[in-house]
Amino acid sequence: MLWFLGQRLVQSAVVLTVMSFVIFGLIGLMPGDPVDLLISADPEMTSDDIARLREIYGLDRPLVERYGVWLWAVLQGDFGFSRLFAQPVITVLLPALGNTLALLGISLALALAIGLPLGIYAAVKPYSPRDYAVNLMAFAGISIPSFWLGLLLIILFAVVLGILPAGGFGTPGVDDWSDKLIYLVLPAMSLTLASVGGHTRYMRASMLETLRQDYIRTARAKGLSERRVVLGHALRNALIPVTTIIALDFGFLFSGALITETIFAYPGMGKLTYDAVMGNDFNLALICLLLATLVTLIGNILADLAYAWLDPRIGFEARQP
User: Fold this and answer.
1) In sequence order, which residues have a C-beta less than 8 Å from that of residue 283 and are 6 or more positions away?
2) Of 20, 69, 147, 178, which residue is least crowded by CB atoms under 10 Å?
3) Using CA atoms, how far apart are residues 180 and 121, in angstroms rounded to an integer?
4) Residue 210 vs residues 82, 310, 311, 312: alpha-carbon distances, Å
5) Dihedral sign, CA of 164, 138, 116, 289?
6) Dihedral sign, Cα of residue 211, residue 214, residue 216, residue 221
7) Which segments of the chain are extended strands (E)?
8) Which is more confident, 120 or 295?
9) Spatial separation of the C-alpha atoms in residues 302 and 32, rounded to whole Å
10) pTM
11) Residue 77 shares a structural domain with residue 202
């Protein structure tokens, strides 16, 4: 196990380093570097002033050299300064990270609690009326655009019924988690409805394939109840491919909830990344994108560990030469 974890951590570090260079290079190619922004703010700036500013910011150096300076600073814990918020990047990042983790945890837990049982329920009796009904709901959830769903929830619960706030994250002047939870209801509901259909479909397909295996027919031939066959024999193996999808959802929900966070004015990582990119805040955008990559890698490692728990035949011992 330790050998496997060490190997995966090394692989993740390599992937994260390569991605940091790629993202650093792509952001460097974006129009409007810090000096260009200063020039637009002061049209009377001379060419000597521009050259001096480029030297101060290190923009006159080659890309590889600039990347090396940035990477060394990051390894020392210096993530740079946010131009948009006039604060250190880490100071801006931590509140948004906490908000996204709260939204991610609630929406993912609800999506799994609803989607996985529905997938199992449909797969037990395939092509039956209940299977068609579950498939119809799953396809509807997958097909509904997230921006339209968010606006519909706002109109229904905030405008028509008036029982939930339309957006934001907490009443101004009120520092209470119970107050913040009310503001989490609509964005969490939107993300849950958008992702529960996919989990249902994946769970149904995996369970259908598992229920066709020979050992399932043997278990039924022994006289075991259908409940024990499904939950005791088929479920663990059916969850293995679904675990991969859940791991990939970590990265998607972490940084891909941009539309949902924008519609509900939720101060999470998706909206922060969008604001940083559109505002040419290079330091903040770079760290946000790398953090999304890191979360995806962590999700993959956790999925690999879950494989061994679901199927004892999967081991992580070092291979013998």
Assistant:
1) 79, 80, 81, 82, 83, 89
2) 178
3) 34
4) 51, 14, 13, 17
5) negative
6) positive
7) 81-82, 87-88
8) 120
9) 39
10) 0.78
11) no
Lowest mean pLDDT among 67-81, 170-184, 306-320: 306-320
For the residues 159-168, what does the mean pLDDT come to?
A: 86
CATH code for position 165: 1.10.3720.10
What are the residues whose beta carbons fall under 8 Å from the beta carbon of 82, sequence distance 6 or more?
88, 89, 91, 92, 276, 281, 283, 284
Q: How many other β-carbons are positioned within 10 Å of the β-carbon of residue 105?
A: 12
Average pLDDT, the chain: 82
Say whether both 80 and 135 belong to one domain: no
Give the domain range for residue 226: 94-310
Phi, psi of 88 (to 5 degrees): -60, 145
Please indicate, yes or no, whether residues 174 and 236 belong to a single structural domain of this protein: yes
Which residue reads 């299977």 in tokens?
Answer: 131
Report how far residue 206's alpha carbon sits from residue 119's, in angstroms, rounded to the nearest whole number: 9
Q: What gap in Å lies between CA 74 and CA 5, rounded to an integer?
A: 24
Residues 121 and 77 in one domain: no
Burial annotation 168-193 (CB, 10 A radius, 16+ → b, else e): ebbeeeeeeeeebeebbbbbbbbbbb
CB 96 within 8 A of CB 267: yes
Cα atoms found within 13 Å of the Cα of residue 157, Cβ hemisphere only: 20
3-state class (DSSP) for residue 58? coil
DSSP assignment letter at 265:
T
**DSSP-derived 3-state class of residue 81:** strand
